[in-house]
Structures are given as C-alpha cells and as structure tokens.
Amino acid sequence: xxxxxxxxxxxxxxxxxxxxxxxxxxxxxxxxxxxxxxxxxxxxxxxxxxxxxxxxxxxxxxxxxxxxxxxxxxxxxxxxxxxxxxxxxxxxxxxxxxxxxxxxxxxxxxxxxxxxxxxxxxxxxxxxxxxxxxxxxxxxxxxxxxxxxxxxxxxxxxxxxxxxxxxxxxxxxxxxxxxxxxxxxxxxxxxxxxxxxxxxxxxxxxxxxxxxxxxxxxxxxxxxxxxxxxxxxxxxxxxxxxxxxxxxxxxxxxxxxxxxxxxxxxxxxxxxxxxxxxxxxxxxxxxxxxxxxxxxxxxxxxxxxxxxxxxxxxxxxxxxxxxxxxxxxxxxxxxxxxxxxxxxxxxxxxxxxxxxxxxxxxxxxxxxxxxxxxxxxxxxxxxxx
Length: 385
Known about the structure:
By secondary structure, the chain is of the alpha+beta class. It has 13 helices and five strands.
C-alpha cells in the first residue's frame, strides 16, 4: 500500500507542476491582457495537468478503451493549445480549421486502434507521433528564433529537442516492453521515459517561454519609462542613462552634445493652442529620428528642448548634423495654419573634453544654446565661441 501511495505521489509531480505553470501564465495574461496567446499556453498547462490527474486518479469510465480515449484527448488538446499559443506569440498560427482536422484525425485513429482493429502498438505510435509532429511543425515555423535573443533561442532549441524526442523515444522504449498489452504499463520503461521527458523538457520549455515573456515585459516597461510618448525619442531620464553608459566605456571616450530649442514656442501655444504645439513637438521628434544615424542618441530633455548625443562625435561631425537638421526643419510642415510663422530652432553644441563629466559638458552646451537664443535665435553656437 505504501508503495502505491509513493508511486502515485511521484506521478502527480508532473501534473501539479503543469498546474503551477497554468497559474503563472494566467497571471502573466492578467498583467498584459492584450496578449491573448498567454491564455492558450495556460490552457495547455491546465489540460496537461487534468489529463495527468485523470489518468492516475480517476476510475471513470469503467470501459478501458473509453478511459484511454478521454485521457489522450486531454493531451492532444494540450498540445494544440500550447503550440497555437507559442505560434501566435511570434505572429503565426495553426488555425481553427487545421486544429479541428488534427483533433478528428487523432480521435479517429485512436478509436480505430481501440475498437475496429485493436492494436496497442499502433495506438501508442499514434498518440506520440501526432503530438511530436505538431511540436516539430511549430519549431520549424520559428527557426528564425535561433538567431534571436538568448531567451528566444532557448525557446526554439528546447522546443525543437522536445519535438524530436517523441520519435526515437517512442520507438526505442516501446521495443523494450516485453508484452505490449501488459496490464501494469505504468511500470514499463516506455512509461517512465515518457513521464521523464514530459516532465523535464516540458517544464524546461514552459520555463523558457515564461522567461522570454517576462524579459519582453521588462523591456517594454523600460521603454515606457525611458521614452517620451509624444515625440517618440528618449525622455530626459532615458537620455541621461544612455549618456552615462557612454562615459562608462572610458574617461577618454569622446562625444558631441547638441542641444536644440524651438524658437518662440510659447507663441505657438498661445496663438494656436496646445494641440498645435504638440504637433510641432511631435513633428520635430519625427524629423530628428528620420535624419539621425544609427549611433546617435536622441532625447527630449525639456518642454521644447531636445538633445542629440553623438558617440565619438567631433566638431565637424556635429556641424554636419546641425546643417542636415536645419535643412529638414526649413522644408518641413508642422500642421500649423498657412499664416503661421515658420518653425525655427536654435542649437548649442559642445564636444566633450578629456575626462569631462556629462553634466559639465551639458552645461557648456546649454550656455552655447543661451548665446544662440540671446544672439537672435535660429542659429547654432559652439561652446567656447
């Protein structure tokens, strides 16, 4: 009796683990409700858990064939829900029609090998090869993840390994079963290998997906924290964080800092309203992004004040950036009425001196910007001129 209780307890570890993951993915969906694929992955975990508990604990129905059919239905449902959820996370899908065809084919083959042409071996192959094929199809659709971030790579490689193992594991371990209709099938090598691979690789796959999902949520929260929603460039906090990371690369690391201020912006707000002012700010943010080079860091550091940080930038490079942006602003339309004065900006530029802190460089650029505005606006002044 104690041995049976111990065996039941060990076999329940897998279903209970899947139940924990179901709660975890449901919690992730509550946090980010627009990601509906998380519900599918949660449903996969729940179905796998219920299927495992049903197989181990429930004694209904008394018909063994029907009992096997119901149990296998939970697993094929879990496989389809999980793969559909994974695919939807990356913009793909199996689709309802294809899923229904798979369900009908799986159910039909299972019933056929149970009642029409009873074959234990054929039924086992059916119940393992169909889920393996679904997982393999899912992995092959996501082969691009092999070159993605580390968390996404983990999802792909674990998924691929999980899919492939269905085929050799089934063939090898099933041949080790002396009597393929043995009553105590749960004690065979096949059953133990099945439970081990599902528990280890299944758990690893779910954990990898959860880590990738949480990493993406953290990245999104960081973007929301550091990016100015109106203009699409970094806010002051995000801009200064990036600047400090540049300085951490070495005390001799050079950069050029360009401060930009919209001339007479208060007049735009007072005359045409704050909505028009927002259009101007948004338009300048778009212009900066479309004219920036990849390495340049863009930010909105005040109401109508923007900044560009050029890693390894020098005086001539900064001058070229300013001229390029001046031409773009002169040619742009900011959605203001025809009689509105054209939008112009002033620039203050500073090139970092050796070992100079960011704040000191910023103050020099800010003083240059003040001189540009005090000297008539619509011009660029270098610190020290």
